[in-house]
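sanity check both lines:
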Amino acid sequence: MTPPKLQIGPSPRSDAQYRLEAESWLDCPREEVFPFFADAFNLERITPPWLNFHVVSPAPIEMSEGTLIDYRLRLHGIPFSWRTMISRWEPPFMFVDQQLRGPYRLWHHEHQFLEVDGGTLVRDIVDYSVPGGAIIHWLMVERDVRKIFEFRMQQIIQHFSAASELTQAAGDPEAIHHHA
């Protein structure tokens, strides 16, 4: 098992200032992991409560290239509407969502799901730009983005650890007895 990784630095993209890269290894097959991320409403579960984040697009959301998803959130007390579009959809390997309207100048989030060591490596690559440039990024945005993704990674690991334990327990009557 590889420990989670998270780093923020300059983006190699010409239209972005910064890049966040995050990785979490899950002890579950990709076929179990991808559907969790393919459900836009699960984003509410893995977003910190202090953002007051909600999907406002009506359910069900049929994910495919071109799907538009609307959200509402509060950032430092300021309400934002956020609209993203799925610009690439390649289940169960990857997808990309891009901000069309929201708090960033640019937000391009690539979600990758790689089979590694009998489990799934969930990799997020986010290229983004912020209004106000480097000063605003340094004062507020970098810290917020880091906290959001640290929370997200923790929630994903907890969710899939619990799912893995239940799956193992279901196949082992002795394990069920010990978890009861």
User: Anything to note?
Assistant: The chain has a mean pLDDT of 91.
